[in-house]
Amino acid sequence: MIEIKQLTKKYTDKVAVDNLTLDIHSGVVTGFLGPNGAGKSTTMRMILGLIDPTKGYVFIDKKPYCKLDNPINKIGALIDADAVNPRFSARQHLTFMATAANLSKARVEEMIFLTGLEKAGDKPIKEYSFGMRQRLGIAGALIGDPDTIILDEPFNGLDVDGIKWLRKLTMDLALRGKAVLVSSHLMGEVQEIAGRVIVLARGQLIADMDMKEMNQRSLSGYVQVKTNRAQELRRALESKGADVISNGKDDIQVRNMEIKKIGEIAFVNNIPLYELSKYQPTLEQLYTELTKGREDYSSNNTKKKREEK
Ligand SMILES: Nc1ncnc2c1ncn2[C@@H]1O[C@H](COP(=O)(O)OP(=O)(O)OP(=O)(O)O)[C@@H](O)[C@H]1O
């Protein structure tokens, strides 16, 4: 488990990470989301001791990274797929890592097999595609069979098979009790794999919750109801505290009321229902609500600026 307390990173003209306090739990994939420049990579680098915090701390198993006895066994990371010697082959790169950490050659072969790099294993890395370098980065992250795995944008560059493989791999790791932190701009992928989601914006924590909670807290979640007595039902639901939006015909959208209660109110009022369905927002919709107006680099801003000229 990772414990982050009041973690802050200030650059001369920028607070990249602002007083962040959170835990990253074992046995779950945690999606790490946020607009460009939100502070995700800076946080990940501070977890790994690659950047010193201005304030606050990160503990991995109750110790900072630099105090870990056998760090490769505690935490593994894919941060930058290009941080490798391009003249090495995957096999040489992983052997170098394994030797430094006293791991067996068999572990190198296991990782090459796991990441599907068998055919390219002896080619120089400079001949690899981005997706192949990502696979190698994942192999490096997992070689020590660490308890915690940090993957910064791991889906980038992967083909369809690679994406499916990585989905399964991250979920399997969590099932084996590992803490898996995955940053990604691909909301669909995060929705598929994550049990928990952390959202940063402008360096600050704006959400840290499990997916169920996230769905429940959503402003955009509602129950869709179809009935030939919409206005009557509307009044009955509003009198019990629901927020109701009507299209003036047979459809109404109900917020702030459980689907079961809506059905019961319709039943006691003898109002027939032709549809009663819960609309579950996608993670992308939830994320958009949470981060609205908090982006440093918004495409709408760019459009507005262009229009102002
Ligand atoms: N070495 C540095 N010096 C000055 N500012 C920096 C430095 N590194 C990062 N920043 C700034 O800190 C902020 C957070 O950057 P970071 O790379 O952590 O964001 P991110 O959430 O990973 O973004 P992205 O999704 O675009 O990768 C940005 O505004 C960035 O410009």
TrEMBL record:
Pfam families xref list: ABC_tran
Record-annotated ABC transporter domain positions: 2-227
Transport in keyword set: yes
Listed PROSITE patterns: ABC_TRANSPORTER_1 (PS00211), ABC_TRANSPORTER_2 (PS50893)
GO function terms (MF aspect): ATP binding; ATP hydrolysis activity
Keyword annotations of the record: ATP-binding, Nucleotide-binding, Transport
SMART domains referenced in this protein's UniProt entry, alphabetically: AAA (SM00382)
Cited Gene3D superfamilies: P-loop containing nucleotide triphosphate hydrolases
Superkingdom: Bacteria
Family per similarity comment: Belongs to the ABC transporter superfamily.
Cross-referenced PANTHER family: ABC TRANSPORTER, ATP-BINDING PROTEIN
Name assigned to this protein: ABC-2 type transport system ATP-binding protein
Source organism of the structure: Mobilisporobacter senegalensis
